[in-house]
Write a structure and sequence with these properties.
The chain is of the alpha/beta class. The chain is globular. The chain starts with 5 loop residues before the first helix and ends with a helix. Helix content is 42%, strand content 13%. It has 2 domains: 232 residues, TIM Barrel, CATH 3.20.20.70; 107 residues, no CATH class. The C terminus is likely disordered. Helix 6 links the parallel strand 4 and strand 5. Helix 2 runs parallel beside helix 3, helix 2 runs parallel beside helix 13 and helix 9 crosses helix 13. The strands form 2 sheets. An 8-stranded parallel β-barrel has the order 1-2-3-4-5-6-8-9, surrounded by 7 helices. The longest helix has 24 residues. It binds flavin mononucleotide. Belongs to the nitronate monooxygenase family. NMO class I subfamily. Pfam families: NMO (PF03060). It catalyses: 3 propionate 3-nitronate + 3 O2 + H2O = 3 3-oxopropanoate + 2 nitrate + nitrite + H2O2 + 3 H(+).
Length: 358
């Protein structure tokens, strides 16, 4: 019974389980395809890719599978470049850069060409477009609607969910405070917010569109709980980080495999925007520092993060992960999705039996 929901009806996925978009490496076409083949709905992140790279990745997913899948972008937000703040941030980062033997300079331009990435999604006619950090422009939403694309926005509060639905977005991904990666918050303080167990029923009651629950879901117990709270699908990011198909770097994998549930924190240290990751030296050093906003800080730290990944140094990497991280399993994506399906059956049965068979 749990397998068919408003989400599966709209997307055509066999299961109401989403392999979350994870920009910056972890989400590969191979991961999206393997999750899709196993019945989950894989979402390919387009951000941090070039438009050509994004197009190639979409085509690679289609080469690998005929299962339905979606794409996702981090939406651009207005930001200011304050040269003094950039210099101050570079001064904070230089000791790390020296340690890694990498040169740090301010780039000429910040951020990415989100319009070009959106154009790729439209031209490739991907039927599902997810996004985070706000609401797309009315023109972008109209173009997506005309293309017959289902849209799904990220909300970390009831007000954000309402804003998305009022703008005409088709689905809401509710992200709890325990979620790994960037917080999608766009109204209010991104460092504050409710946990998923409070947020899903609140949003469920506030909006009349399919709701996807994200944050701390690691196994079938979590999937069943999200569905019981009123969600139409469960979205898992951290749970997929250790899959061999994921592009998670070696030092990142080691950190994920040994992290405790008390080991994550919200930080703006790596990107200038609130995100949850496993605590490391850079996260702790820069806690409370006055830093430039996203995407400025993100672009300033990129060479450092790339050098750290190449050198196997987890202390300067953004190790995005949610509070459920100790439950991450090193399994091929197909086996992970099969385990999630089995475990959800068991969890649903455990509750269903009591009532149904008295
Ligand atoms: C490494 C990583 C990268 C992420 N990148 C994105 C992204 O590009 N777009 C997005 O909408 N969400 C992104 N997220 C957030 C996920 O969509 C989702 O909200 C989160 O993974 C759920 O929490 P969990 O990690 O505890 O499962 C990312 C999460 C992680 C862990």
């Amino acid at each position: 019974m749990w397998r068919e929901t408003a989400f599966t009806r709209v997307t055509g996925a066999r299961l109401p389980i989403v392999a979350a978009p994870m920009a910056g490496g972890p989400t590969t076409p191979g991961l999206v395809a393997a999750a899709g083949e196993a019945g989950a709905f894989g979402v390919l992140s387009g951000s941090y890719r070039t438009p050509d790279g994004f197009r190639a990745a979409i085509r690679e997913v289609r080469r690998l599978t005929s299962a339905p899948f979606g794409v996702n972008l981090l939406l651009p937000e207005p930001y200011e470049v304050d040269p003094a703040a950039v210099e101050a941030a570079l001064a904070l980062l230089r000791p790390y850069a020296d340690e890694l033997g990498v040169e740090l300079t301010a780039p000429e331009r910040y951020g990415e060409d989100a319009d070009a990435l959106l154009d790729v999604a439209l031209a490739e006619r991907v039927p599902f477009f997810g996004f985070t950090f706000g609401v797309p422009s009315p023109a972008a939403l109209a173009a997506l609607r005309d293309a017959g694309t289902v849209t799904c926005g990220t909300a970390t509060s009831v007000a954000e969910a309402r804003a998305l639905v009022d703008a005409g977005v088709d689905m809401v991904c509710v992200q709890g405070i325990e979620a790994g990666g960037h917080r999608g918050a766009f109204l209010g303080d991104p460092f504050r917010g409710a946990g998923l167990i409070s947020l899903v029923p609140l949003v469920r009651d506030a909006v009349d569109v399919p709701v996807v629950a994200a944050g701390g879901i690691m196994d079938g117990r979590g999937v069943a709980a999200a569905l019981a709270l009123g969600a139409d699908a469960a979205q898992l990011g951290t749970a997929f980080l250790l899959c061999p198909e994921a592009g998670t770097s070696a030092p990142y994998r080691t950190a994920v495999a040994s992290a405790a549930e008390t080991g994550t924190a919200l930080t703006a240290a790596f990107s200038g925007r609130a995100a949850r990751g496993i605590r490391n030296r850079m996260l702790d050093d820069l806690a409370g520092a006055d830093l430039p906003p996203y995407p400025v800080m993100n672009d300033l730290t990129r060479p450092l993060r790339q050098a750290a990944a190449a050198a196997g140094r987890a202390d300067f990497l953004s190790l995005w992960a949610g509070d459920g991280v100790p439950l991450a399993r090193e399994l091929p994506a197909a086996e992970l999705v099969a385990a999630l399906e089995r475990e959800t059956d068991l969890a649903v049965e455990r509750f269903g039996c009591g009532r149904g068979h008295g």
